[in-house]
Input
Amino acid sequence: MLMLCKMPRAGVFRENFIFGRFEMNLLEVRNICKTYGSGETAVNALKNVSFSVSKGEFVAIVGESGSGKTTLLNMLGALDTPTSGKVLIDGKDTFSMKERELTVFRRRNIGFIFQSFNLIPELTVEQNMVFPVLLDYQKPNERHMEELLEALKLKERRRHLPSQLSGGQQQRVAIGRALMTRPSLILADEPTGNLDSQNSSEVIAMLKEASKKYEQTIIMITHNRGIAQTADRVLQVSDGVLVDLGRCGE
Ligand code: ADP
Ligand code: MG
Output
């Protein structure tokens, strides 16, 4: 993202001066709080969470079950609204958008990958991948489709139905579907939770490879230590509080 003439306000963006350009953070999360319910049954699922992620960064989110990881990812993807706080994607304040505008923004800028693959059983690999593009009334980019099928090693399976694929292959189709619109942000909630370790590392390697070309930012919740170790940065959520653990590799 280029910021050529507009100087970001101090403290708002962490800017890097590279070859005369300002690079803005792709994601800014500011003071997010989320409380479910009220009174005695209220759950403070997120407590004043703030962080930023730069373009092309691969961030892993770790933490115990029930710590608030999915709640956080839902806020980042604007699938749910926070009790207070802001999320900016590419400088745009998602929670200030009207529902229609937000739906289109989400469809064009964010790719979601879930633990359950959520593929449409009646559609082939290719048809599943192209689905979000058609939903947006756009013409599918054939070359991009070919590149993704190649990168995700699905070429030979393009006309198969999900039921004719292994778990690892199905998750690769879900990744292809998330990448078909070339979103700048990819949000993944335990994408390898249903896969064995061999398949997990393969799937993640392919996701990283496929996303590198378009400098896509990945934020991934994972319980897999090996995957967290390959991330550029690890964020830990403990009882709704976020801690930046930095790089945890090697
Ligand atoms: P994680 O993904 O880390 O396992 P979640 O974000 O799903 O954790 O949940 C965080 C906390 O918020 C938990 O205590 C959970 O019970 C609670 N919670 C999550 N979703 C809801 C909801 N829709 N209504 C009420 N409480 C919820
Ligand atoms: Mg969860």
Observations:
- The chain has one domain: 55-81+98-247.
- Residues 173 and 232 are 25 Å apart (CA to CA).
- Residues 1-22 have pLDDT under 50 and may be disordered.
